[in-house]
Design a protein that fits this description.
Distance between the termini: 32 Å
Radius of gyration: 23 Å
Number of strands: 14
CATH superfamily of the largest domain: Glycogen Phosphorylase B
Shape: globular
Strand order of the largest sheet: 3-2-1-4-5-6-7
Structural class: alpha/beta
Strand content: 5-15%
CATH topology of the largest domain: Rossmann fold
Number of helices: 18
Length: about 425
């Protein structure tokens, strides 16, 4: 059955590839007017396996899908580099935003390219050009042909910071023969939590290949420049106004947040809402929505100073969320008011901020459960409840401090995953 499923997967992927190709061309090689872009066109061959060669063969590949994984793994890569300066490192991702973060944070210290599409011929070309001995995959980015090609070519694979929600587990059980094969082809898996580890074992991962190393996101380092920049934003650009932020929002959440903000301004006239959408290509739609609700909106990339009447500040850039978290008094973590599954609450926690979230958090269920136990988060379900929650916190600074203290202490208590993960990677690489 597993061979049938993999063959069917490859067949479907092959048949769909022309559509995937056309979508890539439209999104990355032409702009909204249909005119050709110059930059992304040159890198398209990387998705077909024609990757830039590293300085020396026999190194290690770290794969991180997009921005979230890249930000969470930068310190891991740097720690590995410090301990193993002789090892050639290639970093792969699949999005332009992730690529930008990698280039900005790691520069020429690593070889960087896109990971090819999951078809055997592209992956084989990639392996032959890079010649890695080890592939490190961030979180649960398992692709049948990637795993198969690495296994066939004796490339050791380790999955780190791995998580598997109950929802994802239920989905994987429907393809158990295929998933079990991929897990058995792994050299090792580093799980975020005992609950995640149990689900991987139920899907067929041998216990001898399993370690529980914790969540890399807890090891986030807050540079003094982040808090300093956040303070400057608060004092200078935002004129010390009361601020709350809705971070990493998805379609359907902006309406809820803006409706709530409109009501809140009836009792808190100077209150400013910062909206940082998960995908910045939605910024213009959010601006129009804000203006339609009579909430004057300033756009970050076009604004050096805001006017007194500004009600909403819209962040339309990538990689700056932390400094806006640092400037805010209250933080709503998005992806949780709609059925997306929630986003990472650790960032506002490490910045000592009170955290609010909606009811849909299965992507980070363990963290939210633990935050609930230590009274480090408040949950809300709709616009009315959100309004009442934010209003209550604005009126009760002591409650804000309690929430922030509890979240901060929780994050500090769970550090150490980076060190444990680096040790496991070194063991696999040198095996």
């Amino acid at each position: 059955m597993k061979y049938v499923l993999k063959a069917l997967y490859t067949l479907v992927y092959t048949l769909a590839f022309p559509i995937i190709l056309l979508r890539f061309l439209w999104r990355n090689i032409t702009d909204k007017t249909g005119r050709r872009k110059a930059g992304p066109r040159r890198r398209f061959l990387e998705r077909l396996g024609f990757s830039p060669r590293p300085s020396n063969p026999g190194g290690i590949v770290f794969h991180m899908v997009s921005v979230g994984e890249a930000l969470g793994a930068i310190n891991l890569v740097k720690d590995f580099q410090r301990k193993n300066p002789e090892v050639p490192i290639t970093i792969t991702c699949t999005t332009q935003q992730g690529s930008k973060i990698i280039q900005e944070r790691l520069g020429d210290s690593v070889n960087h390219c896109y990971l090819p599409y999951d078809l055997p011929i592209f992956l084989l070309w990639f392996i032959r050009r890079i010649q890695p001995t080890t592939l490190v995959i961030l979180e649960t980015e398992l692709w049948p042909n990637l795993m198969g090609v690495c296994f066939a070519n004796q490339v050791r694979t380790i999955l780190i910071n791995a998580r598997l929600s109950e929802k994802s587990y239920n989905g994987y059980t429907k393809l158990r023969p295929l998933v079990e094969t991929m897990l058995q082809q792994l050299t090792h898996l580093c799980s975020q939590s005992p609950a995640d580890a149990e689900r991987f074992k139920k899907l067929g991962l041998p216990e001898t290949k399993l370690s529980i190393t914790g969540n890399l996101k807890f090891d986030i380092e807050v540079d003094e420049t982040i808090t300093r920049t956040g303070d400057q934003l608060k004092q200078e650009r935002f004129a010390n106004r009361s601020l709350w932020i809705a971070a990493s929002t998805h379609p359907g959440e902006d309406e809820i947040v803006l409706q709530s903000h409109k009501i809140l301004r009836e009792t808190h006239a100077d209150l400013l809402l910062i909206i940082a959408p998960r995908h910045i290509d939605r910024a213009e739609n959010i601006r129009k929505l804000s203006e339609s609700l009579a909430l004057p909106c300033s756009v970050h990339s076009k604004t050096s100073a805001i006017k007194n009447e500004c009600a909403v500040y819209l962040v339309d850039t990538m990689g700056e969320l932390m400094k806006f978290y640092a400037s805010a008094d209250i933080c709503l973590v998005g992806g949780s008011l709609v059925q997306h599954g929630g986003h990472n609450p650790i960032e506002p926690g490490v910045l000592h901020k009170p955290i609010i979230a909606g009811p849909y958090n299965h992507n980070f269920q363990t963290i939210y459960d633990q935050l609930t136990q230590c009274d480090g988060v408040i949950f809300t379900k709709d616009s009315q409840a959100l309004t009442e929650t934010v209003h209550g916190l604005l009126e009760d600074p002591q409650r804000c401090r309690e929430l922030a203290d509890n979240a901060f202490q929780y994050v500090n208590a769970h550090r150490g995953a980076t060190l444990r993960s680096v040790e496991r990677i070194e063991q696999v690489y040198r095996a």
